[in-house]
Amino acid sequence: MTVNISIEKVEVLQAKHNLTAKKLAEIANISRQTLSTIRKCRTCRPITAAKIAKALNVDVTDILTEVNR
User: What distance in Å separates the CA atoms of residue 43 and residue 4, rounded to the nearest whole number?
Assistant: First the structure.
């Protein structure tokens, strides 16, 4: 299963926390390449979405758009 990520919401939160893509990936414990792929595809595994949300100090539902099955 994958989840759809709102890249716009992630970018707003990233700017709010003054985080570069490199720093966000580092805090979320994912690679910059993974973050780049998520930005292009707008989907990822739920655990990855949770890592990004935690790095941005928000609930995972705050950055999701819908769930794919």
Answer: 4
